[in-house]
Amino acid sequence: MRRSAGPGRSVEADPAEGSSGRSSARVIAALEALTRSEEGLGLAELSLAVGAPKSSLLGILRSLVVLGYLAHSHGLYRLGPRSFRLAADMLAVRRFPSLVRPVLQDLHARTQETVFLVQLDAVARRSTYVEGIDSPNPVRYTVPTGTTRPLYVSAGGLMLLAFQDPGFIDAYLRSVPLDPLTPRTITDVGKLRQRLQTIRREGFAVSIGETVPGAAGLAAPIFNADGSVTAGLLIAAPVERFEKRLPEFKRLLREATSIVSGITPGPAPEAPALGAPAPSEARPAGRRRGRRVVGSDVATGD
To answer: Is residue 61 scored above 90 in pLDDT?
Structure first.
C-alpha cells in the first residue's frame, strides 16, 4: 500500500504489517494531507493524496470524525479540535521549558523571588516543578526541580486543578483524600470547590502557609492554543515579603503568563460551577546557601 508523503508523492507501507499497518499508514497520510489544506479536502482528493480507494478510506475518515480528530461539513474534511490539541501537547513536551525560560528569567529579575514553571501530571494527578530559579535573597523559598505537590494544596496545584474540565475536578475530589499538610490546609470539599471557582474567575491561586508554614505562593495559568491549561507560572517567597508585594506580584505574573500564552491579560473564563481555589504555596527544599524556607519551616542553609 502506498502512503502519501506530500503532493504527488507516496510512500510504501510494509506489506508485512497487514490491514492494521495499512490503516495506520492511511490515518497518518490523511492527517498529513489535511495539515497542508486550509480549506479542507473532499473524499476524492483525500483518496488521491493518501493513495487509497475511497471505499477503504471512508471508514477511517468517519472514525476520525467521531473521535474529534477530523471535522466534516459540506463535503469537506478538515482537522478537528483533538488534532490541534495533540499538536499543542506535542510542541509543549518538546519545546515548552526552553520557550518559557526567558520569561522565567525576566520574572525572576523583576521580583527577586523564586519562580517556577509548574506542569500538570494528569496521570498522577499532581503538579510538578519542571523549571525553577531561586531567589538571590538569603531567606528564600526553594524547591528542587522534579518535586511534585498535591493539586488540592499548593498555589500551582490549586491553579492547575481549577482550570481543568468539570469531570476531572469531580473525579479528583471524589477519589483524593484532602489530608492537611498544615493547619491552614483546606480539607472540606465544599470549601475547596468554592475556592476553585474563585481562582478560575480571578485567574490567580494564592497560598499562604497551606503547604509549608512560613511560605507563600502565587500561581497563574498558561493557556494552550485550545484554551486548556496544563501548566502555569509560580512566584514563591517567605510570607512577610510575599504579603507586602502581592499586588505587584499579580501584575508581573499576569504579564509573564500572557507572554507565554500569547493572550491579552484579562480575567479568566467563568468556571463551569465546579472549581477554583485561591491561595496556595509550594513546599521548600533546596540546597543553596543562606536561610531558606524548607521542609515545614524556615531553616538555615549551610
So the answer is: yes
Residue 84 lies in a domain: no
**22, 52, 79 - which closes a domain:** 79
The number of CA neighbours under 13 Å toward the Cβ of 169 is: 26
Q: Is the pLDDT confidence value at 279 over 80? A: no
CB 126 within 8 A of CB 151: yes
31-56 mean pLDDT:
92
Torsion sign across C-alpha atoms 171, 192, 242, 281: negative
Beta strand 140-141 with 291-294 is parallel
Give this prediction's pTM. Answer: 0.60
Q: Judge if 193 and 265 occupy the same domain.
A: yes
**137 has a pLDDT exceeding 70:** yes
pLDDT tier at 190 (50, 70, 90 boundaries)? very high
Q: What is the mean pLDDT of residues 222-227?
A: 86
86 belongs to a structural domain:
no
Question: Is the predicted pLDDT of residue 302 greater than 90, yes or no?
Answer: no
Count of CB atoms situated within 10 Å of the CB of 109: 11
Helix axes 54-67, 18-35, angle to 10 degrees: 70
Q: Which residue range forms the structural domain that includes residue 9?
A: 2-79
